[in-house]
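One thing: could you explain this record?
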Amino acid sequence: MLRRSILVGAGAALALPAVAQQQQPIKIALIYGKTGPLEAYARQTEAGFMLGLEYATKGTMEINGRKIQVILKDDQLKPDLAKAALEQAYGDDKVDIAVGTSSSAAALAMLPVAEEYKKVLIVEPAVADQITGEKWNRYVFRTARNSTQDALAAAATLKDENISIATLAQDYAFGRDGIASMKQALAAVGSKAKIVHEEYAPQQTTDFTASAQRIFDALKDKPSRKIVVVVWAGAHPLPKLMDLKPERYGIEIAPGGNILPVMAGWKQFPGLEGAIYYYWGFPKNPVNDWLVAEYKKKNNGAPPDFFVAGGMAAAMAIVEGIKKAGGTDTEKLIAAMEGMTFDTPKGKMTFRKEDHQALQVMYHWRMKKDPPDNVDLLELVREIPADEMKLPIKNKR
């Protein structure tokens, strides 16, 4: 298990009062899947998290005179390692708050640990509904969107037509939650669309021929518009599905949003549409302007991606929460963060009091006809407001 500690603080510590100098640093554990197929997600989360701390503390890397110490732990996308990493963070490292992780299955394994140690856990970027649903506890907050928010945003792009839908998803918590949420979301927005087939494939699938044939058979004779909705993390099946020529049956693919390297492979499909959590060119606010400029400066002109924004949101929530609570006492943090509205690159987010899920905007996108490069890819159809997505409360609080 990778473990790395970063002590960050302004160089002006001598100017602080003696009492402040003696204060212990604020310890934050960042747990992520840096080893494995979601490595790109983890690297982005870390980059965004550190930038978020920089922005929210105005470059001091201190909160109320206390330096921030970030302890990094690699759970390798394995639930048992994620659980052990969080136990070590709370028990041995004595962290004040933790953030994680990349995999929904790993995040679910961490939830009982937060409750056992009575410490706050910010879930970022794991998506499964169960995290703020049936498996939730009061120590868990989530800046990441959940599967239902993804589904409601996607449904908002499909609600105005009579559509037959087949789905393709990974056969684990993220994929199955995503499809269950899609069904509920279509009903919630009053869509006429109907799901006529569900297809689940192992996470490591690379040959989609058999899955695609079952999907095509279920859709090809439908008289309505025909769409395949894909819920997938990691290497995306869209290009391989398109190689199987769904257009011969009048079938369209709706892939959802993804990281830039994945979407760059979709440039040959102009007009492709979907919903996305974040795209660097969409939000118009000072936080995103700063993020885009700083990230480009530090990454040879490349813009921030999907999970960079998520990492930054988690960091900004922590800084705002600690400031509001006046420290890192868990009960004071929970009281401060329930219902708290805070800035992010996407604009304002609010932790809903009932389940601590961050309510947030989403975006309806369309692939540009002639993208000039591999990052300037999407045009904004519209911003989908948080209050348009009627997010149900799924926990048992």
